[in-house]
Amino acid sequence: MGTDNGKDYDMSNDRRISQRIQFLFLCAVVCINVLVLYAFSLQQCNCPAQDPGKIIDTRDEILTSYERVISELKTELKTLHQGTERLILDRTQAIYDELMARPITCGNKEDRRGSVHDPFLEWSVGERSREFEQLVEPKKLPLGYSLTMFRDTVISPVGHGCATMKAELNEYMKYKIGGECPDDEALAQKLLIGGCEPLPRRRCFARIPNNYTEPYPLPDAMWSATGDGGVIWTAHTCKNFTCLKNRVKEKVFADCVDCFDLDGRERNRWVSLGIAVDFTVDEVLAYKNGTIRIGLDLGGGTGTFAVRMKERGVTIITTTLNLNAPFNNFVALRGVVPLYMTISQRLPFFDNTLDIVHSMHVLSNWIPTDMLEFIFYDIDRILRPGGLFWLDRFFCVKSQLATYVPMLENLNYTKLRWQVADKLDRGPELQEVYVSALLMKPTQRFSSE
Ligand SMILES: *[C@@H]1O[C@H](CO)[C@@H](O)[C@H](O)[C@H]1NC(C)=O
Ligand SMILES: *[C@@H]1O[C@H](CO)[C@@H](O)[C@H](O)[C@H]1NC(C)=O
Ligand SMILES: *[C@@H]1O[C@H](CO)[C@@H](O)[C@H](O)[C@H]1NC(C)=O
Ligand SMILES: *[C@@H]1O[C@H](CO)[C@@H](O)[C@H](O)[C@H]1NC(C)=O
């Protein structure tokens, strides 16, 4: 390449240099476009009609020649203006990266050039987000093969439900790296609930609420949330805690409508008996004589269960979403640990580790039956042998007990408590019932003969 005789650039001749830059730029752009076109055509080919080995060879040849072009350009450009070199190299590198990330849809999956075949990227081709792909693509460990992990790459996962919400995902991944994240809590939660869980990590800073206020110290924090400064209210109808507290009086429909009023019903939950199926925390703890120390409250609203347990020296993690209210912030303000996750996800605890799993209202007949069975098995997995599953106010239609009771009994737990009572709040004609159960996981299963 080159129009004049080799390397005798006249550095003082600005015009000639700028012409040369233009020529190189043009050349790079043309090469790139040809390659990209070729890559697209490779991707769309129909496998059966073609010889797979041949296609890979062709692709490899292209990549080789492309690399040669880039390195020639690099050498030539070394002597030219730095800014232009960066411009061209950045652009060629970006396109090269894309080319390497593209799945090979035809032929042998083993790419001899060592690009990582990542099936995850296949669905993200289209509306493209480099930031997203950079997060999820497998990455080589800088110190090479790890003897402890038995691998030389790591992968950052995102939920496969992301694949069904590409538009939202692309929106979510639009931000300035190192800047402030968009105010998009509602979008993030929509993705989570849609099975895009875990969400992709982002390289932007989560917004800090205006006028942030420190929480109260313990023990005061447990029963009084501080001012409204710990929350970004954009995603919620209410804009302060007073509004949330008053929701119950205004008879608005909301998840856990009375949970923010810490002087109301929350005060009595699990310490004095409410309805016929309720147990108190003290009754429950008494069954295990001090060995209930750590546990999980699934769908724990504003964290009152965890607070009541904390008062008794037991550490409870509360999973909760922010369904039109800042539940997670509120739980944290009370000095107990919120875990922001849906109930669809595998519980992030190891097998046989927790002393107790509690869940009130959340596990009920609104959950698809087979999904509920997966959840019960997952709860069983994380409970330690002898641990307690407190299914609190599970509700369903009376006739559905024929499905749910055998499902629970299938776990082979010891029934420490078992209460069924009519649930009348929506009218007796609905034939709804509450079931509360305190079940103890067996200490032995499938004992080897
Ligand atoms: C910030 O919060 C404090 C305490 O809640 C309050 O007194 C103050 O008026 C707030 N300032 C602004 C600008 O909202
Ligand atoms: C709280 O929000 C409600 C409506 O959302 C508003 O009417 C009220 O003035 C607010 N209260 C305070 C103390 O900011
Ligand atoms: C309960 O634990 C205490 C002290 O750890 C022990 O003295 C007592 O015997 C235990 N009671 C039962 C019923 O296991
Ligand atoms: C559950 O208990 C029944 C009856 O005691 C027994 O036949 C069955 O093998 C047990 N299943 C498991 C998984 O322990």
UniProtKB/TrEMBL annotation:
Ranges annotated as spanning the membrane: 21-40
InterPro entries the UniProt entry points to: Methyltransf_11, Prob_Methyltransferase, SAM-dependent_MTases_sf
Domain Methyltransferase type: residue ranges: 296-390
Keywords carried by this UniProt record: Membrane, Transmembrane, Transmembrane helix
Pfam families in the cross-refs: Methyltransf_11 (PF08241)
Name listed for the protein in its UniProt record: Methyltransferase type 11 domain-containing protein
Organism per entry: Riccia fluitans
